[in-house]
Design brief:
CATH architecture of the largest domain: 3-Layer(aba) Sandwich
Shape: globular
Low-confidence stretches: 346-362
CATH topology of the largest domain: Aminopeptidase
Radius of gyration: 22 Å
Strand order of the largest sheet: 1-2-3-4-5-12-6-11-10-9-8-7
Oligomer: single chain
Mean pLDDT: 92
Largest sheet: 12 strands, mixed
Number of domains: 2
Number of strands: 12
Order of helices and strands: HEHHHEEEHEHEEHHEEHEHEHEH
CATH superfamily of the largest domain: Gcn5-related N-acetyltransferase (GNAT)
């Protein structure tokens, strides 16, 4: 189908005067390869390690939650060639705040030309309209604070400067941690009464629900939807044979959902296994379960021929996760941060000075 370019064009206030520059709506799956090319160009320049595939994009966009790509995306073109794009989505986190998240990619050769600033402001306007509509529909209660969020890696210096200039501050930090070898893995027995079992398909739903319950105590938690579950099942790194799940009778007590991203290992010339999805439900905490499952997971990926392990952690996690991971040999290698800005008309966010305070070891 041929789109009417006049109807499809998005009017962008404050857009720079660049010959051939156009902002348009998403046009369906034909855009996916162009989006992937933009991601590839951006990641190399920004030194962000990721390994997206066309199938990943297709799967993610088949299971979007609170985001309609035909309404909530902006595609950027110059002379009909895609040079960038953005998408926004929303969630109600911890029942304490409405958060509109935005992601954007722009080819490096088109940066520092005011395109990113125009796009950011457009996304903020869209989020304000979205929140107003949801309040009118009764989805969003009146008076609930509203924020705009973005994730920025420590190597994305230009992006950080842009968002800081527009009033965003660092609200939360996470570390990428790596255990550089899989030798001398410490011992950590399972707590009495618990056992690890082979994960079978009939366990998937129980494991998913247990993980969702365990993560409700984490910062920024939003209850997952059925679309998230289906996306999880279809992920190319869904490798339940590598998981270590602790059971107490018929109850899931905790888990580590390890995986090996073979394509990523080839791209970055390494043999890394990921020990992610680490969580323990409230009734089984403070008994050494997370440590025991993590140690078992390290052995599992070593048996698959891996030479190192990696994970991500919230540096302000109240459960002591950062100390746990350091105690079994993981070390921070880089950081990414959640930057946040309050959308006008609501109560002020928490003290900006404390939000900017560096974490220990930063």
């Amino acid at each position: 189908m041929v789109m009417d370019t006049m109807v499809d064009t998005i009017e962008m206030s404050n857009a720079p005067e660049i010959p051939g520059l156009r902002f348009r709506h998403f046009q369906g799956s034909d855009d996916y390869p162009r989006m992937l090319a933009v991601i590839q160009a951006s990641k190399d320049y920004d030194r962000v390690e990721r390994n997206d595939t066309l199938e990943d994009i297709q799967r993610n966009y088949a299971h979007l939650v609170n985001s309609d790509p035909y309404q909530d995306m902006v595609m950027i073109e110059v002379d009909s060639e895609m040079i960038g794009y953005s998408r926004v989505e929303w969630s109600i986190q911890d029942e304490k705040a409405w958060v509109g998240s935005q992601l954007a990619f722009l080819r490096p050769e088109w940066r520092q030309r005011a395109i990113g600033t125009a796009l950011l402001r457009s996304n903020e306007r869209h989020l304000r309209r979205m929140a107003t509509r949801l309040q009118a529909e009764g989805v969003l209660q009146q008076g609930l604070p509203r924020f705009s969020d973005v994730i920025i890696f420590d190597t994305e210096t230009g992006k950080e400067i842009l968002f800081r200039q527009q009033g965003y501050t660092a609200e939360r930090h996470e570390f990428l941690m790596v255990r550089p070898d899989l030798e001398n893995i410490p011992e950590a027995p399972l707590p009495d009464g618990l056992e690890v079992r082979l994960v079978l398909p009939e366990h998937y739903r129980a494991i998913w629900e247990a993980g969702a319950e365990a993560f409700r105590d984490h910062w920024g938690y939003a209850p997952p939807k059925e679309e998230h579950y289906q996306n999880w099942l279809e992920d190319r790194n869904f490798q339940p044979d590598l998981w270590r799940v602790g059971w107490d009778g018929d109850q899931v007590a905790g888990m580590v959902q390890s995986f090996i991203n073979a394509e990523e290992n080839v791209e970055y010339q390494r043999k890394r296994g990921w020990t992610e999805g680490i969580c323990v439900r409230r009734s089984w905490r403070r008994r050494g379960l997370a440590r025991a499952l993590l140690v078992q997971s390290l052995h599992a990926i070593k048996e698959r021929g891996m030479l190192e392990a990696a994970l991500t952690v919230d540096t302000q996690n109240l459960s002591g996760a950062l100390r746990l991971y350091e105690s079994v040999g993981f070390h921070p290698v880089r950081r990414f941060s959640f930057y946040r800005k309050q959308l006008e008309g609501e109560s002020p966010p928490r003290d900006a000075e404390s939000a900017e305070k560096p974490e220990a070891g930063e």
